[in-house]
Amino acid sequence: MKLRRKILFAIILLVFIPVIVMGIVTYVNYSNAMEKKSSNFYWISLLETDRKLKFALSEISSITNSAITQPAIQQSLKQQNFVLTYDRKQEINNLLINHPMITSFSLYGKDRLLYQYNAPMSFADMHKQVWFGAMEAAEGRPVWSGPGENGSASGDKPVLVHARVIKDYYSLEDIGYLVVYVKPDLLDQIFWEAATLKKGDILLVNKQGNIVFNKSGEHIGERTDFPFLQENYNQEQDYYIDNYQGERSLITFLPSHNADWYLAAITPMNLISSESVSIRNIAIILGMVSLLSAFLFDRYFIRRLVRSINSAVNGMKRVKQGIFTPIPVPLRANDESDSLIDGFNRMSSQINELIDQVQTEQGRKKEAEMQALMAQINPHFIYNSLESINSMAVLAGNRDISKMVISLGRLLRISISQNQELIPLQMEFEHVRHYLDIQKFRFEDKFSYELELPEPLKYVMTQKLIVQPIVENALYHAIEQMEEHGTITVTAQENGKDIIIIVKDNGPGFDLEVLMSQWDKERSNPKKYSDSGVGLKNVHERLNIRFGNPYGILVCSSPGFGSAICIRIPRIQPS
Protein backbone atom coordinates (compact mmCIF):
# COMPACT_ATOMS: atom_id res chain seq x y z
CA MET A 1 0.00 0.00 0.00
CA LYS A 2 1.27 3.48 -0.87
CA LEU A 3 2.45 5.71 2.00
CA ARG A 4 -0.17 8.36 1.23
CA ARG A 5 -2.97 5.82 1.38
CA LYS A 6 -1.59 4.44 4.63
CA ILE A 7 -1.57 7.89 6.25
CA LEU A 8 -5.08 8.68 4.95
CA PHE A 9 -6.32 5.29 6.14
CA ALA A 10 -4.74 5.93 9.56
CA ILE A 11 -6.44 9.34 9.81
CA ILE A 12 -9.79 7.77 8.94
CA LEU A 13 -9.23 5.05 11.56
CA LEU A 14 -8.15 7.54 14.24
CA VAL A 15 -10.62 10.37 13.54
CA PHE A 16 -13.50 9.51 11.23
CA ILE A 17 -14.41 6.08 12.56
CA PRO A 18 -14.25 7.11 16.27
CA VAL A 19 -16.51 10.10 15.54
CA ILE A 20 -18.98 7.88 13.69
CA VAL A 21 -18.88 5.23 16.42
CA MET A 22 -19.35 7.89 19.10
CA GLY A 23 -22.28 9.39 17.18
CA ILE A 24 -23.90 5.98 16.68
CA VAL A 25 -23.44 5.00 20.33
CA THR A 26 -24.82 8.36 21.49
CA TYR A 27 -27.76 8.12 19.10
CA VAL A 28 -28.59 4.54 20.09
CA ASN A 29 -28.29 5.26 23.82
CA TYR A 30 -30.37 8.40 23.54
CA SER A 31 -33.00 6.56 21.47
CA ASN A 32 -33.15 3.77 24.04
CA ALA A 33 -33.44 6.35 26.81
CA MET A 34 -36.27 8.07 24.95
CA GLU A 35 -38.03 4.73 24.48
CA LYS A 36 -37.68 3.99 28.17
CA LYS A 37 -38.80 7.48 29.11
CA SER A 38 -41.81 7.30 26.79
CA SER A 39 -42.69 3.86 28.12
CA ASN A 40 -42.55 5.08 31.71
CA PHE A 41 -44.66 8.10 30.80
CA TYR A 42 -47.30 5.93 29.15
CA TRP A 43 -47.24 3.33 31.90
CA ILE A 44 -48.10 6.03 34.45
CA SER A 45 -50.76 7.38 32.09
CA LEU A 46 -52.24 3.89 31.68
CA LEU A 47 -52.20 3.34 35.42
CA GLU A 48 -54.09 6.60 35.96
CA THR A 49 -56.53 5.77 33.17
CA ASP A 50 -57.25 2.36 34.67
CA ARG A 51 -57.81 3.96 38.06
CA LYS A 52 -60.37 6.38 36.58
CA LEU A 53 -61.96 3.55 34.62
CA LYS A 54 -62.29 1.45 37.74
CA PHE A 55 -63.87 4.36 39.62
CA ALA A 56 -66.35 5.14 36.82
CA LEU A 57 -67.39 1.51 36.37
CA SER A 58 -67.62 1.05 40.12
CA GLU A 59 -70.18 3.85 40.25
CA ILE A 60 -72.43 1.95 37.84
CA SER A 61 -71.81 -1.31 39.69
CA SER A 62 -72.74 0.34 42.98
CA ILE A 63 -76.06 1.49 41.52
CA THR A 64 -76.93 -1.98 40.21
CA ASN A 65 -75.71 -3.60 43.44
CA SER A 66 -78.17 -1.49 45.39
CA ALA A 67 -80.99 -1.89 42.87
CA ILE A 68 -81.03 -5.71 42.60
CA THR A 69 -81.42 -6.10 46.34
CA GLN A 70 -84.46 -3.85 46.55
CA PRO A 71 -87.95 -5.49 47.11
CA ALA A 72 -89.30 -3.91 43.94
CA ILE A 73 -86.98 -6.03 41.80
CA GLN A 74 -86.69 -9.05 44.09
CA GLN A 75 -90.47 -9.51 44.42
CA SER A 76 -91.11 -8.87 40.72
CA LEU A 77 -88.73 -11.63 39.70
CA LYS A 78 -89.84 -14.16 42.30
CA GLN A 79 -93.54 -14.13 41.41
CA GLN A 80 -94.55 -16.18 38.42
CA ASN A 81 -96.33 -14.30 35.62
CA PHE A 82 -96.09 -11.14 37.62
CA VAL A 83 -97.33 -8.07 35.79
CA LEU A 84 -95.63 -4.84 36.73
CA THR A 85 -97.83 -1.94 37.62
CA TYR A 86 -97.09 1.60 36.66
CA ASP A 87 -96.00 2.45 40.16
CA ARG A 88 -93.69 -0.56 40.32
CA LYS A 89 -92.13 0.44 36.99
CA GLN A 90 -91.54 3.94 38.24
CA GLU A 91 -89.98 2.55 41.35
CA ILE A 92 -87.60 0.39 39.29
CA ASN A 93 -86.78 3.34 37.04
CA ASN A 94 -85.93 5.41 40.08
CA LEU A 95 -83.55 2.70 41.25
CA LEU A 96 -81.59 2.46 37.97
CA ILE A 97 -82.03 5.67 36.03
CA ASN A 98 -80.29 7.84 38.58
CA HIS A 99 -76.94 8.18 36.79
CA PRO A 100 -76.44 10.48 33.78
CA MET A 101 -74.44 7.84 31.87
CA ILE A 102 -77.13 5.12 32.08
CA THR A 103 -79.38 5.39 29.03
CA SER A 104 -81.53 2.26 29.30
CA PHE A 105 -81.84 -1.16 30.92
CA SER A 106 -83.65 -4.48 30.59
CA LEU A 107 -84.92 -6.71 33.41
CA TYR A 108 -85.35 -10.38 32.59
CA GLY A 109 -86.83 -13.23 34.52
CA LYS A 110 -85.69 -16.80 34.16
CA ASP A 111 -87.70 -17.29 31.00
CA ARG A 112 -88.98 -13.96 29.75
CA LEU A 113 -88.44 -10.25 29.44
CA LEU A 114 -90.01 -8.72 32.51
CA TYR A 115 -89.40 -5.01 31.94
CA GLN A 116 -87.29 -2.78 29.72
CA TYR A 117 -86.56 0.89 29.57
CA ASN A 118 -85.59 2.16 26.11
CA ALA A 119 -83.91 -1.20 25.36
CA PRO A 120 -86.10 -3.42 23.14
CA MET A 121 -84.05 -6.65 23.35
CA SER A 122 -86.00 -9.87 23.57
CA PHE A 123 -85.14 -12.68 25.93
CA ALA A 124 -84.04 -14.84 23.00
CA ASP A 125 -81.78 -12.11 21.64
CA MET A 126 -80.14 -11.75 25.03
CA HIS A 127 -79.10 -15.39 24.94
CA LYS A 128 -77.34 -14.70 21.64
CA GLN A 129 -75.13 -11.90 22.97
CA VAL A 130 -71.37 -12.50 23.24
CA TRP A 131 -71.37 -11.49 26.87
CA PHE A 132 -74.19 -13.84 27.95
CA GLY A 133 -71.92 -16.80 28.74
CA ALA A 134 -69.52 -14.62 30.71
CA MET A 135 -72.46 -13.15 32.63
CA GLU A 136 -73.73 -16.58 33.74
CA ALA A 137 -70.18 -17.68 34.62
CA ALA A 138 -69.71 -14.55 36.78
CA GLU A 139 -72.45 -15.76 39.17
CA GLY A 140 -73.87 -12.37 40.05
CA ARG A 141 -70.80 -10.27 39.59
CA PRO A 142 -71.16 -7.55 36.95
CA VAL A 143 -69.83 -8.24 33.47
CA TRP A 144 -68.82 -5.37 31.20
CA SER A 145 -68.87 -5.42 27.43
CA GLY A 146 -67.56 -2.44 25.51
CA PRO A 147 -68.64 -1.12 22.11
CA GLY A 148 -65.93 -3.08 20.38
CA GLU A 149 -67.06 -6.35 22.00
CA ASN A 150 -70.86 -6.24 21.87
CA GLY A 151 -71.02 -5.12 18.21
CA SER A 152 -72.62 -1.75 18.91
CA ALA A 153 -69.58 0.09 17.58
CA SER A 154 -70.60 -0.75 14.03
CA GLY A 155 -74.10 0.71 14.55
CA ASP A 156 -75.38 4.20 15.06
CA LYS A 157 -75.60 3.96 18.86
CA PRO A 158 -72.52 2.41 20.45
CA VAL A 159 -73.08 1.48 24.10
CA LEU A 160 -71.22 0.04 27.04
CA VAL A 161 -73.12 -2.97 28.40
CA HIS A 162 -73.27 -3.79 32.10
CA ALA A 163 -74.84 -7.22 32.60
CA ARG A 164 -75.24 -9.41 35.68
CA VAL A 165 -77.25 -12.32 37.07
CA ILE A 166 -79.79 -11.40 39.80
CA LYS A 167 -79.89 -13.77 42.77
CA ASP A 168 -82.46 -14.25 45.48
CA TYR A 169 -81.46 -12.08 48.39
CA TYR A 170 -82.07 -14.92 50.85
CA SER A 171 -81.44 -18.18 48.99
CA LEU A 172 -78.89 -16.86 46.45
CA GLU A 173 -80.69 -18.71 43.67
CA ASP A 174 -80.68 -17.21 40.16
CA ILE A 175 -83.98 -15.40 39.68
CA GLY A 176 -83.24 -13.16 36.67
CA TYR A 177 -80.92 -10.95 34.67
CA LEU A 178 -80.21 -7.23 34.59
CA VAL A 179 -78.69 -5.57 31.51
CA VAL A 180 -77.79 -1.90 31.80
CA TYR A 181 -76.75 0.19 28.81
CA VAL A 182 -74.22 2.95 29.53
CA LYS A 183 -73.24 5.81 27.28
CA PRO A 184 -69.80 5.38 25.67
CA ASP A 185 -69.17 8.95 26.80
CA LEU A 186 -68.14 7.42 30.09
CA LEU A 187 -65.15 5.79 28.41
CA ASP A 188 -64.60 8.73 26.09
CA GLN A 189 -64.25 11.11 29.01
CA ILE A 190 -61.78 8.84 30.76
CA PHE A 191 -59.62 8.23 27.72
CA TRP A 192 -59.74 11.83 26.59
CA GLU A 193 -58.23 12.91 29.91
CA ALA A 194 -55.41 10.37 29.49
CA ALA A 195 -52.02 11.95 28.76
CA THR A 196 -50.55 10.99 25.36
CA LEU A 197 -48.00 12.33 22.96
CA LYS A 198 -49.04 13.89 19.70
CA LYS A 199 -50.51 11.24 17.38
CA GLY A 200 -50.31 8.76 20.24
CA ASP A 201 -53.28 6.56 21.16
CA ILE A 202 -54.57 4.54 24.14
CA LEU A 203 -56.49 1.33 23.52
CA LEU A 204 -58.73 -0.84 25.65
CA VAL A 205 -58.53 -4.41 24.30
CA ASN A 206 -59.94 -7.68 25.56
CA LYS A 207 -58.11 -10.99 25.76
CA GLN A 208 -59.50 -12.03 22.39
CA GLY A 209 -57.68 -9.10 20.76
CA ASN A 210 -60.75 -6.97 20.00
CA ILE A 211 -60.38 -3.23 20.47
CA VAL A 212 -63.05 -2.45 23.06
CA PHE A 213 -62.47 1.29 22.95
CA ASN A 214 -59.67 3.75 22.16
CA LYS A 215 -58.98 7.42 22.56
CA SER A 216 -58.91 8.24 18.86
CA GLY A 217 -62.23 6.50 18.24
CA GLU A 218 -60.79 4.67 15.24
CA HIS A 219 -60.59 0.92 14.62
CA ILE A 220 -63.04 0.12 17.48
CA GLY A 221 -64.19 -3.47 17.17
CA GLU A 222 -61.27 -4.49 14.96
CA ARG A 223 -59.17 -7.45 15.93
CA THR A 224 -55.52 -7.08 16.80
CA ASP A 225 -52.74 -9.53 17.52
CA PHE A 226 -50.77 -8.17 20.45
CA PRO A 227 -48.16 -10.60 21.81
CA PHE A 228 -48.95 -9.77 25.44
CA LEU A 229 -52.46 -11.25 24.98
CA GLN A 230 -51.00 -14.71 24.53
CA GLU A 231 -51.00 -16.99 27.53
CA ASN A 232 -47.31 -17.99 27.18
CA TYR A 233 -46.07 -14.42 26.83
CA ASN A 234 -42.93 -13.86 28.93
CA GLN A 235 -43.48 -10.45 30.48
CA GLU A 236 -39.91 -9.25 31.07
CA GLN A 237 -40.83 -5.63 30.47
CA ASP A 238 -44.04 -3.70 29.96
CA TYR A 239 -43.23 -2.34 26.51
CA TYR A 240 -41.92 -3.46 23.14
CA ILE A 241 -41.58 -2.20 19.57
CA ASP A 242 -43.76 -3.65 16.81
CA ASN A 243 -45.82 -2.70 13.80
CA TYR A 244 -49.34 -1.38 14.48
CA GLN A 245 -51.65 -0.38 11.62
CA GLY A 246 -48.68 -0.50 9.25
CA GLU A 247 -46.52 1.82 11.32
CA ARG A 248 -43.62 0.93 13.58
CA SER A 249 -44.66 1.91 17.09
CA LEU A 250 -43.73 1.70 20.76
CA ILE A 251 -46.42 -0.35 22.52
CA THR A 252 -46.78 -0.03 26.29
CA PHE A 253 -49.35 -2.28 28.00
CA LEU A 254 -50.94 -2.69 31.43
CA PRO A 255 -53.43 -5.30 32.68
CA SER A 256 -56.67 -3.56 33.66
CA HIS A 257 -58.51 -4.05 36.95
CA ASN A 258 -61.03 -5.89 34.79
CA ALA A 259 -59.43 -9.30 34.26
CA ASP A 260 -60.74 -9.46 30.68
CA TRP A 261 -59.21 -6.16 29.57
CA TYR A 262 -55.78 -4.71 28.83
CA LEU A 263 -54.81 -1.10 28.38
CA ALA A 264 -52.27 -0.41 25.62
CA ALA A 265 -50.60 2.86 24.62
CA ILE A 266 -49.46 3.24 21.02
CA THR A 267 -46.73 5.74 20.12
CA PRO A 268 -45.32 5.92 16.57
CA MET A 269 -41.56 5.49 16.62
CA ASN A 270 -41.07 8.48 14.35
CA LEU A 271 -42.37 10.67 17.19
CA ILE A 272 -39.82 9.20 19.60
CA SER A 273 -37.00 9.23 17.08
CA SER A 274 -37.74 12.85 16.24
CA GLU A 275 -36.37 13.69 19.67
CA SER A 276 -33.04 12.10 18.72
CA VAL A 277 -32.94 13.37 15.13
CA SER A 278 -30.85 16.35 16.20
CA ILE A 279 -28.25 14.04 17.75
CA ARG A 280 -28.25 11.86 14.64
CA ASN A 281 -27.83 14.91 12.41
CA ILE A 282 -25.02 16.25 14.58
CA ALA A 283 -23.28 12.85 14.41
CA ILE A 284 -23.63 12.81 10.61
CA ILE A 285 -22.35 16.39 10.33
CA LEU A 286 -19.39 15.64 12.60
CA GLY A 287 -18.63 12.51 10.58
CA MET A 288 -18.75 14.43 7.30
CA VAL A 289 -16.64 17.26 8.75
CA SER A 290 -14.04 14.78 10.04
CA LEU A 291 -13.98 12.99 6.67
CA LEU A 292 -13.67 16.30 4.84
CA SER A 293 -10.89 17.33 7.23
CA ALA A 294 -9.08 14.08 6.51
CA PHE A 295 -9.24 14.68 2.76
CA LEU A 296 -8.19 18.35 3.14
CA PHE A 297 -5.31 17.26 5.36
CA ASP A 298 -4.38 14.73 2.69
CA ARG A 299 -4.74 17.32 -0.08
CA TYR A 300 -2.72 20.17 1.44
CA PHE A 301 -0.23 18.40 3.69
CA ILE A 302 0.13 14.66 3.19
CA ARG A 303 0.29 14.87 -0.60
CA ARG A 304 3.16 17.36 -0.50
CA LEU A 305 4.98 15.40 2.21
CA VAL A 306 4.57 12.12 0.33
CA ARG A 307 5.58 13.85 -2.89
CA SER A 308 8.82 14.98 -1.23
CA ILE A 309 9.44 11.45 0.08
CA ASN A 310 8.64 9.94 -3.34
CA SER A 311 11.02 12.43 -4.96
CA ALA A 312 13.74 11.36 -2.53
CA VAL A 313 12.97 7.67 -3.20
CA ASN A 314 13.03 8.20 -6.98
CA GLY A 315 16.27 10.10 -6.56
CA MET A 316 17.74 7.16 -4.64
CA LYS A 317 16.64 4.82 -7.43
CA ARG A 318 18.42 7.05 -9.96
CA VAL A 319 21.48 7.10 -7.74
CA LYS A 320 21.35 3.31 -7.70
CA GLN A 321 21.42 3.41 -11.51
CA GLY A 322 24.33 5.87 -11.45
CA ILE A 323 22.26 8.97 -12.34
CA PHE A 324 22.90 11.93 -10.02
CA THR A 325 20.38 14.54 -11.16
CA PRO A 326 19.14 16.95 -8.45
CA ILE A 327 15.53 16.78 -7.23
CA PRO A 328 13.50 19.89 -8.21
CA VAL A 329 11.39 21.59 -5.51
CA PRO A 330 8.48 23.44 -7.21
CA LEU A 331 7.02 24.94 -4.00
CA ARG A 332 9.02 25.41 -0.85
CA ALA A 333 7.32 25.02 2.52
CA ASN A 334 10.35 25.80 4.70
CA ASP A 335 9.96 22.63 6.72
CA GLU A 336 11.79 19.33 7.22
CA SER A 337 10.72 18.04 3.79
CA ASP A 338 12.69 20.86 2.12
CA SER A 339 15.67 20.01 4.33
CA LEU A 340 15.36 16.40 3.18
CA ILE A 341 15.41 17.37 -0.51
CA ASP A 342 18.24 19.89 -0.04
CA GLY A 343 20.28 17.34 1.91
CA PHE A 344 19.71 14.71 -0.77
CA ASN A 345 20.71 17.12 -3.55
CA ARG A 346 23.93 18.05 -1.71
CA MET A 347 24.68 14.39 -1.07
CA SER A 348 23.98 13.51 -4.71
CA SER A 349 26.26 16.25 -6.05
CA GLN A 350 29.04 15.27 -3.64
CA ILE A 351 28.73 11.61 -4.60
CA ASN A 352 28.80 12.59 -8.28
CA GLU A 353 31.97 14.59 -7.73
CA LEU A 354 33.55 11.74 -5.77
CA ILE A 355 32.63 9.25 -8.51
CA ASP A 356 34.18 11.51 -11.15
CA GLN A 357 37.33 11.71 -9.07
CA VAL A 358 37.36 7.96 -8.52
CA GLN A 359 36.77 7.28 -12.21
CA THR A 360 39.63 9.63 -13.14
CA GLU A 361 41.89 7.95 -10.63
CA GLN A 362 40.77 4.48 -11.74
CA GLY A 363 41.50 5.39 -15.36
CA ARG A 364 44.94 6.53 -14.41
CA LYS A 365 45.43 3.42 -12.31
CA LYS A 366 44.32 1.14 -15.15
CA GLU A 367 46.63 2.92 -17.53
CA ALA A 368 49.51 2.51 -15.10
CA GLU A 369 48.64 -1.16 -14.55
CA MET A 370 48.44 -1.76 -18.29
CA GLN A 371 51.81 -0.12 -18.80
CA ALA A 372 53.25 -2.18 -15.95
CA LEU A 373 51.82 -5.40 -17.34
CA MET A 374 53.08 -4.58 -20.79
CA ALA A 375 56.45 -3.76 -19.31
CA GLN A 376 56.57 -7.19 -17.66
CA ILE A 377 56.17 -9.02 -20.90
CA ASN A 378 58.49 -6.82 -22.98
CA PRO A 379 61.60 -8.92 -23.81
CA HIS A 380 65.02 -7.44 -23.18
CA PHE A 381 66.45 -8.69 -26.39
CA ILE A 382 67.65 -6.70 -29.23
CA TYR A 383 66.24 -7.66 -32.53
CA ASN A 384 69.34 -6.58 -34.43
CA SER A 385 71.46 -8.90 -32.30
CA LEU A 386 69.26 -11.78 -33.35
CA GLU A 387 69.75 -10.84 -37.00
CA SER A 388 73.51 -11.06 -36.47
CA ILE A 389 73.22 -14.43 -34.82
CA ASN A 390 71.08 -15.60 -37.71
CA SER A 391 73.71 -14.49 -40.22
CA MET A 392 76.46 -16.28 -38.32
CA ALA A 393 74.37 -19.47 -38.16
CA VAL A 394 73.79 -19.36 -41.94
CA LEU A 395 77.49 -18.85 -42.59
CA ALA A 396 78.27 -21.75 -40.27
CA GLY A 397 75.72 -23.89 -42.13
CA ASN A 398 73.54 -24.56 -39.05
CA ARG A 399 69.99 -24.32 -40.41
CA ASP A 400 68.32 -25.27 -37.09
CA ILE A 401 69.89 -22.34 -35.27
CA SER A 402 68.86 -20.06 -38.14
CA LYS A 403 65.23 -21.24 -37.95
CA MET A 404 65.13 -20.72 -34.16
CA VAL A 405 66.57 -17.24 -34.44
CA ILE A 406 64.11 -16.29 -37.21
CA SER A 407 61.17 -17.57 -35.15
CA LEU A 408 62.44 -15.80 -32.05
CA GLY A 409 62.89 -12.56 -33.98
CA ARG A 410 59.36 -12.64 -35.34
CA LEU A 411 58.13 -13.54 -31.87
CA LEU A 412 59.83 -10.51 -30.38
CA ARG A 413 58.73 -8.22 -33.20
CA ILE A 414 55.13 -8.57 -31.96
CA SER A 415 56.15 -8.15 -28.31
CA ILE A 416 58.08 -4.91 -28.80
CA SER A 417 55.37 -3.24 -30.93
CA GLN A 418 54.33 -0.74 -28.21
CA ASN A 419 52.30 1.39 -30.56
CA GLN A 420 49.77 -1.37 -31.25
CA GLU A 421 47.38 -2.49 -28.50
CA LEU A 422 45.08 -4.50 -30.79
CA ILE A 423 46.35 -6.88 -33.48
CA PRO A 424 44.56 -9.21 -35.91
CA LEU A 425 43.78 -12.65 -34.59
CA GLN A 426 45.84 -14.07 -37.48
CA MET A 427 48.94 -12.30 -36.13
CA GLU A 428 48.25 -13.61 -32.61
CA PHE A 429 48.04 -17.18 -33.97
CA GLU A 430 51.25 -16.56 -35.97
CA HIS A 431 52.94 -15.48 -32.75
CA VAL A 432 51.82 -18.75 -31.10
CA ARG A 433 53.13 -20.77 -34.06
CA HIS A 434 56.61 -19.19 -33.81
CA TYR A 435 56.64 -19.81 -30.06
CA LEU A 436 55.70 -23.50 -30.51
CA ASP A 437 58.29 -23.93 -33.28
CA ILE A 438 61.00 -22.67 -30.92
CA GLN A 439 59.77 -24.99 -28.15
CA LYS A 440 59.83 -27.99 -30.48
CA PHE A 441 63.61 -27.57 -30.81
CA ARG A 442 63.78 -27.85 -27.03
CA PHE A 443 61.28 -30.68 -26.53
CA GLU A 444 62.14 -32.36 -29.88
CA ASP A 445 59.32 -34.81 -30.69
CA LYS A 446 57.75 -34.88 -27.22
CA PHE A 447 54.64 -32.96 -28.38
CA SER A 448 52.74 -31.86 -31.47
CA TYR A 449 50.37 -28.94 -31.97
CA GLU A 450 47.42 -27.82 -34.16
CA LEU A 451 46.22 -24.28 -34.84
CA GLU A 452 42.71 -23.81 -36.27
CA LEU A 453 41.65 -20.30 -37.25
CA PRO A 454 38.55 -19.99 -39.51
CA GLU A 455 38.97 -17.65 -42.47
CA PRO A 456 36.21 -15.15 -41.32
CA LEU A 457 38.02 -14.67 -38.00
CA LYS A 458 41.54 -13.96 -39.27
CA TYR A 459 41.15 -10.19 -39.30
CA VAL A 460 39.17 -9.85 -36.08
CA MET A 461 41.09 -7.55 -33.74
CA THR A 462 42.20 -8.75 -30.31
CA GLN A 463 44.51 -7.90 -27.42
CA LYS A 464 48.01 -9.09 -28.24
CA LEU A 465 49.86 -11.76 -26.30
CA ILE A 466 46.83 -13.47 -24.80
CA VAL A 467 47.15 -16.97 -26.33
CA GLN A 468 50.93 -17.51 -26.04
CA PRO A 469 50.94 -17.31 -22.18
CA ILE A 470 48.21 -19.95 -22.06
CA VAL A 471 50.16 -22.22 -24.44
CA GLU A 472 53.30 -21.65 -22.33
CA ASN A 473 51.46 -22.80 -19.21
CA ALA A 474 50.26 -25.89 -21.07
CA LEU A 475 53.87 -26.76 -22.03
CA TYR A 476 55.45 -26.26 -18.60
CA HIS A 477 52.61 -27.58 -16.41
CA ALA A 478 51.25 -30.36 -18.62
CA ILE A 479 53.42 -31.53 -21.55
CA GLU A 480 56.76 -31.30 -19.72
CA GLN A 481 55.49 -33.58 -16.92
CA MET A 482 54.24 -36.27 -19.36
CA GLU A 483 56.20 -39.35 -20.40
CA GLU A 484 54.02 -40.06 -23.42
CA HIS A 485 53.50 -37.88 -26.46
CA GLY A 486 51.62 -34.62 -25.77
CA THR A 487 49.19 -32.65 -27.92
CA ILE A 488 48.24 -28.95 -27.82
CA THR A 489 45.29 -27.68 -29.84
CA VAL A 490 44.42 -24.00 -30.31
CA THR A 491 41.08 -23.25 -31.99
CA ALA A 492 38.94 -20.13 -32.46
CA GLN A 493 35.15 -20.05 -32.94
CA GLU A 494 32.25 -17.62 -32.95
CA ASN A 495 29.81 -17.37 -30.04
CA GLY A 496 27.20 -14.76 -30.85
CA LYS A 497 28.91 -11.36 -30.72
CA ASP A 498 31.97 -12.83 -28.99
CA ILE A 499 34.97 -14.98 -30.00
CA ILE A 500 36.00 -18.03 -27.97
CA ILE A 501 39.66 -19.22 -28.22
CA ILE A 502 40.20 -22.68 -26.71
CA VAL A 503 43.68 -23.93 -25.72
CA LYS A 504 43.44 -27.65 -25.09
CA ASP A 505 46.05 -30.20 -23.95
CA ASN A 506 46.03 -33.90 -23.09
CA GLY A 507 48.16 -33.47 -19.96
CA PRO A 508 47.48 -34.84 -16.46
CA GLY A 509 45.10 -32.01 -15.57
CA PHE A 510 44.73 -30.45 -12.12
CA ASP A 511 42.11 -29.83 -9.47
CA LEU A 512 40.75 -26.60 -8.01
CA GLU A 513 43.27 -26.38 -5.17
CA VAL A 514 46.22 -26.50 -7.60
CA LEU A 515 44.63 -23.82 -9.77
CA MET A 516 44.02 -21.50 -6.77
CA SER A 517 47.58 -22.01 -5.51
CA GLN A 518 49.01 -21.09 -8.92
CA TRP A 519 46.63 -18.13 -9.13
CA ASP A 520 47.71 -16.85 -5.72
CA LYS A 521 51.40 -17.39 -6.59
CA GLU A 522 51.09 -15.05 -9.54
CA ARG A 523 49.75 -12.34 -7.23
CA SER A 524 52.35 -12.79 -4.51
CA ASN A 525 55.40 -13.47 -6.74
CA PRO A 526 55.60 -10.93 -9.57
CA LYS A 527 59.13 -12.20 -10.46
CA LYS A 528 57.44 -15.24 -11.98
CA TYR A 529 56.67 -13.20 -15.07
CA SER A 530 60.28 -12.62 -15.77
CA ASP A 531 61.33 -16.15 -14.86
CA SER A 532 58.79 -18.39 -16.51
CA GLY A 533 56.59 -16.19 -18.63
CA VAL A 534 53.21 -14.55 -18.17
CA GLY A 535 50.59 -16.37 -16.06
CA LEU A 536 46.89 -17.02 -16.44
CA LYS A 537 45.97 -14.22 -14.01
CA ASN A 538 47.98 -11.75 -16.08
CA VAL A 539 45.99 -12.58 -19.22
CA HIS A 540 42.69 -12.50 -17.37
CA GLU A 541 43.39 -9.10 -15.79
CA ARG A 542 44.54 -7.55 -19.07
CA LEU A 543 41.39 -8.70 -20.87
CA ASN A 544 39.19 -7.59 -18.00
CA ILE A 545 40.84 -4.17 -17.81
CA ARG A 546 40.71 -3.68 -21.57
CA PHE A 547 37.24 -5.03 -22.36
CA GLY A 548 35.50 -5.29 -18.96
CA ASN A 549 33.17 -8.04 -17.75
CA PRO A 550 32.44 -10.80 -18.78
CA TYR A 551 35.62 -11.05 -20.85
CA GLY A 552 38.61 -13.04 -19.60
CA ILE A 553 39.54 -16.70 -19.26
CA LEU A 554 37.65 -19.79 -18.08
CA VAL A 555 39.62 -22.82 -16.82
CA CYS A 556 38.20 -26.32 -17.31
CA SER A 557 40.33 -29.16 -15.94
CA SER A 558 40.12 -32.37 -13.99
CA PRO A 559 42.91 -34.71 -12.82
CA GLY A 560 43.58 -37.36 -15.49
CA PHE A 561 41.51 -35.69 -18.21
CA GLY A 562 43.68 -32.85 -19.47
CA SER A 563 42.83 -29.14 -19.46
CA ALA A 564 40.95 -26.68 -21.62
CA ILE A 565 41.40 -22.92 -21.22
CA CYS A 566 38.69 -20.77 -22.85
CA ILE A 567 39.57 -17.17 -23.74
CA ARG A 568 36.53 -14.94 -24.31
CA ILE A 569 37.01 -11.72 -26.27
CA PRO A 570 34.59 -9.37 -28.06
CA ARG A 571 34.34 -9.49 -31.84
CA ILE A 572 36.04 -6.28 -32.98
CA GLN A 573 36.21 -5.64 -36.72
CA PRO A 574 39.23 -3.73 -38.07
CA SER A 575 38.58 -0.04 -38.63
UniProtKB/TrEMBL annotation:
Q: Specify the Histidine kinase domain's residue ranges.
A: 399-573
| Name this protein carries in UniProt | histidine kinase
PANTHER family, from UniProt?
A: SENSOR HISTIDINE KINASE YPDA
The residues covered by the HAMP domain are 303-356
- Gene3D superfamilies associated with the record: 6.10.340.10, Histidine kinase-like ATPase, C-terminal domain, PAS domain
SUPFAM superfamilies according to UniProt: ATPase domain of HSP90 chaperone/DNA topoisomerase II/histidine kinase
Matches recorded under CDD domains? HAMP
Q: What is its main location?
A: membrane
Origin organism is Paenibacillus rhizoplanae
Which compartments does it reside in?
Cell membrane
Q: Which residues cross the membrane?
A: 7-30
Q: Which GO terms describe its molecular function?
A: protein histidine kinase activity
Its EC number is 2.7.13.3
Task: Write out the entry's keywords from A to Z.
Answer: ATP-binding, Cell membrane, Kinase, Membrane, Nucleotide-binding, Phosphoprotein, Transferase, Transmembrane, Transmembrane helix, Two-component regulatory system
Keyword Transmembrane helix on entry: yes
Domain of life from the UniProt record: Bacteria
Give the reaction(s) catalysed. Answer: ATP + protein L-histidine = ADP + protein N-phospho-L-histidine
Q: Give the enzyme class.
A: transferase
Against Pfam families, the record matches this protein to:
dCache_1, HATPase_c, His_kinase
What InterPro entries does the entry give? Bact_2-comp_sensor_kinase, dCache_1, HAMP_dom, HATPase_C_sf, HATPase_dom, His_kinase_dom, Sig_transdc_His_kin-like_C, Sig_transdc_His_kin_internal
Per the record, membrane topology reads:
Multi-pass membrane protein
Is this entry keyworded Transmembrane? yes
